[in-house]
From TrEMBL:
This is alpha-amylase. The active site is at D238, E262. CDD domains: AmyAc_euk_AmyA. Its cofactor is Ca(2+). Its EC number is 3.2.1.1.
């Protein structure tokens, strides 16, 4: 009797302590908007700044090495992220890397682990990382940590996979923890992709034997402890296609929070299959289709429409996929075109279409680096300007997104218009119109049928400037002027907390100098 009473009390205590660390699920993440940052490149600690480091993005030696960003630096700049309307961050991997350099520099990016139990001291201490998560939570910003289970870091100049070589890793230091040495040469061969090394003969990344039950156990315990110790809200999983699928079921179950994997492939069905093994994946197939369109005024918006449709058939749930226009592995959008109007249309698409938007650090400052390493610029040379046009643009849409009801995030978009230059959709109560005219104004309007979504006479306001309005006519249509700018219409009576300064201005006739595009 006595001991069973104890058992009940202990169980209750355990349940209580679990309840304080709330595990965030896919459906909770659906309405979030994510800012992707690389800890080394986002912000240096206040008081210890070396702003010259990596300030010149033409210096290849510097950009392949540690630039001095820290967890404390991230804390210092959380308000910069919050003011841009983001309520989640994805941070680069936090575990210890080899200090020894390779021909590509050391593992400042975090994808080359030496010891998965230690925190990378270049970024700060374990306590500072915990503090970062706490400070983020205090601002209602959730934190997603990037993790790697496919491989460990490379050691240049040592014969790969010898016992001596493998001894250097923690906790994987035995031959049986790794696959036999081979290098991926045939990318269409699944066995090679899952068992051989990334990085080529040049710099092979020792490939973990994720079929070995001991490796599986170590990883399950590790991810479970990591998430709980630091109170992370989600995990982003690296190199998903290089590990057998069933491994991920166990790994993500042990994590117990939202998981989103990097499955780098352009075929929706190939990628969609992985949503059976984790909550979500990055929307690579959509990315591959939309980028050639949004970066080129002479392409075809119809292909965006077809891509949206083809994603729906291939995924269990497209409303939790991670949508993006670039990241640390892809050339930045503005390296493909300099036209910021095109960028704004692409941003409008990823911020409002079905799925979870992910915006890579530096987009808001108009960064235009090309392939790795040039797309991994330090952010400090921008001075973290909050008045830049793109910063304001992203903030406006993010803040609008946060006022939307949950039905927005669970419903699928409905096509309103698609031709070579224009793509428009309804989603819940919004009408979003994008074009690829860029800086060119074609000077015409279209009549969009609203299919009974709004009653006749309803006024819709473009939340991007709070002044442009259209009214549903007696045919149930709205006339939309077409330019190179995107437009986001919402019933003006239903807009919450937005366009308030505009309304006050009408009521009180306040000074005309007030920036009417800003939110209250
Ligand atoms: C491997 O690591 C374990 C602890 O994780 C240690 O006890 C053991 O001695 C190590 N083996 C080698 C060969 O270094
Ligand atoms: C940032 O500030 C420095 C020092 O005031 C200045 O030289 C630099 O031009 C600024 N950078 C930008 C992008 O405004
Ligand atoms: C509102 O935004 C649209 C699209 O950018 C633009 O064409 C229009 O001129 C703006 N209206 C006002 C009053 O600024």
């Amino acid at each position: 009797m006595h001991s069973s009473k104890h058992f009940v009390i202990i169980t209750l205590l355990i349940l209580l302590s679990l309840a304080t660390a709330i595990a965030r699920t896919a459906s909770e993440w659906r309405s979030r908007t994510i800012y992707q940052l690389l800890t080394d490149r986002f912000a240096q600690s206040p008081g210890q700044k070396n702003p010259q480091l990596c300030a010149n993005n033409g210096n290849e030696y510097e950009i392949r090495r540690y630039c001095g960003g820290t967890f404390t630096g991230v804390i210092d700049k959380l308000d910069y992220i919050k003011d841009m309307g983001f309520d989640a961050i994805w941070i680069s991997p936090v575990v210890k890397q080899f200090e020894k350099e390779t021909k590509y520099g050391p593992g400042w990016h975090g994808y080359w682990a030496q010891d998965i139990y230690e925190i990378n001291s270049h970024f700060g201490t374990a306590n500072e990382l915990k503090q970062l998560v706490q400070e983020a939570h205090a601002r209602n910003i959730w934190v997603m940590v990037d993790v790697v289970a496919n491989h460990m870091g490379p050691q240049e100049g040592t014969t790969p996979y010898t016992a001596e070589y493998l001894k250097a890793y923690t906790p994987f230091n035995k031959t049986e923890h790794f696959h036999d040495f081979c290098v991926i040469e045939h990318w269409g061969n699944d066995y090679e992709v899952e068992h051989c090394s990334l990085g080529g003969y040049d710099l092979p990344l020792p490939d973990l034997n994720t079929e070995n039950p001991q490796v599986v156990d170590i990883f399950s315990n590790w991810i479970s402890d990591l998430v709980r110790e630091y109170n992370f809200d989600g995990i982003r999983i690296d190199t998903v296609k290089h590990v057998r699928r069933e491994f991920w079921s166990e790994f993500t179950a042990a994590a117990g929070v939202f998981s989103i994997g990097e499955m780098f492939h352009d075929d929706p069905y190939t990628v969609g299959n992985y949503q059976n093994y984790m909550d979500s994946v990055l929307g690579y197939p959509l990315f591959e289709k939309i980028i050639p369109v949004f970066t080129n005024p002479f392409s075809d918006m119809g292909s965006v429409s077809r891509a949206v449709q083809s994603m729906r058939g291939a995924f269990k749930d497209v409303t939790v996929l991670g949508n993006f226009i670039d990241n640390h592995d892809q050339p930045r959008f503005l390296s493909r075109t300099q036209d910021r109007n095109l960028l704004k249309n692409a941003l409008t698409f990823v911020l409002l279409t079905d799925g979870i938007p992910i915006i890579y650090q530096g987009t808001e400052q108009g960064f235009n680096g090309g392939n790795d390493p040039w797309n991994r610029e330090a952010l400090w040379p921008s001075n973290y300007s909050q008045s830049s046009d793109l910063y304001q643009f992203i903030a406006t849409i993010n803040k609008f997104r946060q006022t939307l009801p949950s039905s927005y995030f669970t419903s699928l978009s409905i096509e309103a218009w698609a031709n070579d230059r224009i793509y428009a959709f309804f989603k819940d109560r919004a009408l979003v119109v994008m074009t690829i005219y860029g800086t060119y104004d074609p000077m015409f309007s279209i009549k969009v049928k609203t299919n009974g979504l709004y009653s006749v006479g309803t006024t819709l306001v473009n939340i991007l400037n709070c002044t442009e309005k259209v009214t549903v006519d007696s045919y149930g249509e709205v006339g939309v002027r077409i330019t190179g700018d995107p437009r986001i219409f919402y019933p003006s009576q239903e807009v919450k907390g937005l366009c308030q300064i505009d309304k006050r201005r009408m009521n009180r006739k306040v000074d005309r100098q007030i920036n009417i595009f800003k939110f209250a």
